[in-house]
Every structure is written in structure tokens, then in C-alpha cells.
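Task 17 of the worksheet. Students: predict the tertiary structure of the chain below and write it out as C-alpha cells. Keep your answer in the requested format; marks are given for formatting as well as content.
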Amino acid sequence: MDVELVEIQEFLASHPPFDKLPPETLERLPKRLSVRYIRRGSVFPPLDADQPYLYILRRGAVELRDAQGDLVGKLAEGDLCDMACRLGGNAVPMKGSTAEDTLVYLLPCTDLTALRAQHAHFAEHFDQSVAHRLRRALDAVTNAPASGAGLMTLRVGTLINRALVTATPETSIREAAQVMAEHNISSLLIMVGEHLAGLITDRDLRKRCLAAGLPSDRPVREIMTERLETVNVDTLGFEALITMTRLNVHHLPVMSGGKVAGILSTTDLTRFQSSNSVYLVGDVHHAKDLDTLIEISSKVGELQVHMVNGGATADQVGQAISAITDAITRRLLEIAEAQLGSPPVPYAWMVGGSQARREQTSYSDQDNALLIADHMKPEDDAYFAALASIVNDGLNACGYVYCPGDVMARNPKWRQTLRIWKKYFNTWIQRPEPMALMLSSVFFDLRPVHDPEGLFEEIHDQVLNLSKDNRIFIAYMAANAVKNRPPLGFFRNFVLIQGGEHDHTFNIKHRGIVPIIDLARVYALSSGITETNTLERLRTAAGINALSKDGAANLSDAVEFVGTLRVRHQAGQLRRGEKADNFLSPDELSPLERGHLKDAFLLINAMQESLAQRYQTGRIN
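Model answer:
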């Protein structure tokens, strides 16, 4: 075969969907192609084409714009343009032009039709929308066989193998203990008819009865826990494990169709997983000093590697690591209070950023603040300044480095009373300024990890009530959310970092994940949604205001796919003994992964455009 034809064959074989064709078909295909050179600034597809073609970009770049002239996509090396084949002739719905001198291979649409008819896997690429391709890509990366996947696919219902053992609220504590001993169980469901009224555990018997000196003939309603978190029989085992970790509980009632199906314990779950965040959180709760916490936190990277090897998604990794960070923060607060004495007034320790959204990885800095009761006296600030220093320094020692922007509780500006925090948010929302937009990624995602008096709820309600009805504020937030565009041509040199430590890479977090986080925040604030986690925000906002159900599903798939590539990249670095970061080289990805990542970026860009048009962000400087 001619050398040039061999080169074309090798090029096609390395790019989807041609990599799905059998070798003998690929060997014949180059002879069916023609080659064309198109100068920069030319109309694309060419107006003088003698028939409809599939265009395969070999070199160069093409920009695609809609009828309004807005950029909706970019094509670069390995990309396809099949508009003419889909619609016939050159009657295309978008206007294209070459952004630089471009070399393309032309395959007649008749040949493309024949290939699609003969090769189903090849045809799938053209039969599916960008959203469908992304969904398949996400399924592929999350469902790939991997050792230790266990709880990633296991449903809670499969672990419920005991008959229901229950008591009523009027059952005596002694009788309840006898029932638990007889059935060799560590917890007992308290029922009123078919209604779940509460739960008692071995720990309740020890702490609320024996240690408190409560007579055993008293009814169990006096020691039972009434406000219960539950899971469904269809809940993934990993999600249940994360819920237990977050709440620091060891038992969860399991529901089915609104009725109690059984109870799940950590023992049930840990039979299927030998290393998980529950163990680390348990170790944190028993840590006596900072040195022990430092030792425990050093295992977080190992946990991320283990989870990625087991097929975990970015959301699962984020939930697990954030739960550990929460536990370390609470233990540092306990250590600080042990050193300083009881706080003079109630306070709440609030976290922001990725920890607040439960989206942390092992590469993270700290963002936090203190909310203090209004009856604090001026001299009380010395106590809270010392407490903040102990916790901020402790987190830094545990690997959660100081915030580069000093958004930490040790900064007096972010250590304020409830009245001052209300004033902050009122100013940010009523008079949006660049500073408010800069802080939005931290303070409009706040979540309390220690708040015994419930101080945070009053601020949170104020933020939601003020923001959802303030269209000017939301418009400014929307304008901020569409500024950080995804790198649509990310594998081309002119969009990669050039020179320095991160040469030939791009920041997958800032260019791929943050845009979706920013979009989800706007949807949440404009709809009064309480959730802070990005996926939860998207799911809750689906079908409300600016976000359609399809749009929410597509963005959810995009953030999971891009995020999973990120945690895989970091896990690879950790396995090699390197420090984890967000700088991904396109060389790490297969051609198929690069194509799917571009699909994700196209979806993000389209959603940004939609939001920009809704709020007319072009009018905001």
C-alpha cells in the first residue's frame, strides 16, 4: 500500500469511531477518501463541494456558530463534521469557518451510510446525541470490572437478611434489653403499628440508662432516638456507608415503599469492604492528639487510590474524603476546647468550598469560618481566636493547607457574630460587587460541621430568601458562572499551558469541574434550594426555572465523568508517590476519552450559553 494511504489508515485507527471498524475495512477505507486543504477564514463545509461529505479533520481548526453567530463548538484534529450527511447537501443548521489553515479527509456520505449499515458499533457514534455518548462513557468508567468494587454496586436490600425484631415505645428498658440479647442484635426498632417511632442501640442502653442511673423498668421511649435518618432498599451500599460516616452512627433503618424493611449496621457493610472511610473516621474519633490525627490523615491518599481501583466515581470519593475531613475538624475542635475550656458563648464552625459541597479529594486546601452567638463580649474574641488558630494549624498539619486567600476562621474578618454575618450576606446580595462574586464559591456553599445551638440555620434561611427573589444578584452570579469556559479544544497546543512546571497540561478542575459547580450554584440560589452538593443541587433543580430535566441529567453526567477522570489522574500520581494535583495532560487519555471529554465540554458550554441568554449577562460588566 502507498505510504500516504498507510498513514491515513493509522490515523483513522487511532480515532473514534473508526477504531471500531475491523482491520480489513480500515485497510480499504483510505482509498475511498479524498484530501482537501482549506485556507483560514473559509466557509466550512466548503460551498463548492461536489457532493455531501463526512469531513475528518487531519490538521487545523474549525469554529461552528449558530444562527445568531454565537460559538457553539470547535473542531480540531480527529474531529468529525457530519452535518451534510445528516441533512443532505450543504443545508446545515450551523455556520462554520476555518479558524486556521485546515487539512481534511472527505468521505462521501453514501460510503458513510454503507459503513453504518454494516458495522453497528461504528454506527452508534452517529446515532447517538452528545448527551447519550456521554452517558455511555460515564457508564463505562463507573461500571468497568474492578477488584473490590463491592459496595459501589451492592444494594442495601441484599444485606437485609434478618426478620424484623421490634418493640413498642411502652416496652420497658429491661424487656427491650432481653429481646436484644435473645436475638443477638445490637439495635432494636421501636414501632407504633407500622410506623417507625424510634431506635435503641447497645450504646443507648449503656449511656442513657446504666450510666445515667435510669431504672430499667422505665419505658424505652425515654432513651430511644426519635429523629432518624433512613435509607431505601435500593440505596447503594456505599451511599449508606457514607451516610453512617457523616452522621457518626452505626445503624440505619431500611425502608421499602414507606414501610420498615429492616435495619442496616456497619458490620453488615464492612463484611464487603476491608478498607473504608468508616474505619478512618472511627480512628479520628479516638485520636488523643494532633500527632495521631496527622498519622490518620496520611492515609487519605491511600483511601482515594483504593476507591478508584474499586471503581468509585468522583462523587463517591468526594463524599468519603469530606466525611474524614469533617471528622478531623470536629476532633480538632474537641482538642481545642479541652485546652481552652468551654466556649464562653455558643458558636458554629462553618466550612466552605469543596468540603462544604462534600466534593473533596486528597488534594485540597481549607476554607472555613466561625459564626458566634450575638451575646459574645469583646473579651471573648481572644478565646475564639485561639480556638481558630489551633484548628487551622491542625488542619494544615494534617495536609489541608492554609487557604491562599486567607478565608479561614483565624482571620478576624471571617470570625464574626450572627449579626455581622447577616450584614455580610445582606450586602453581598443586595449590592453585588466583584468581592461578593469572588467569595461566592466559598460562602454561598457554607455548611456547618459543628453547630450545637443551630446558629447556622438562621443565616442559611436568610441567604436563600434574599437571593431567590433578587434577579439582579442572580444575574451577577450567572455572569460570573459563564466566565470560566471549558477548553473545547483542550488537546491542542494553543489552549494548553505552555512552559513551566505544568507544561502541556490543563487544569481539569478549574476548566472542567468548576464551571458546572458555578452553574449548579446559580440554579440553587435562584430556586431557594438548600443543598450544597453539586449533584444534589442539579437533581433538585431539574425542571425548575432555568434548568430542564434533560439539562440537569446532562450536567450531572458531565461533572461525574470529568470528575472521575480527575480522581483517576490523582490516584495515578499517588500510586507513583507524587503529590496529587489537577493538571491533566491529554497524553494521559485515550482518543476515546478525549472525545468523550470534549462531549462534556460541549454540553457545559451549551448550558453556559443558555444561562447567559436567560439573564442577559452580556449587559453586566
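Marker's comment: The two ends are 59 Å apart (CA to CA). Residues 300-619 form one domain.
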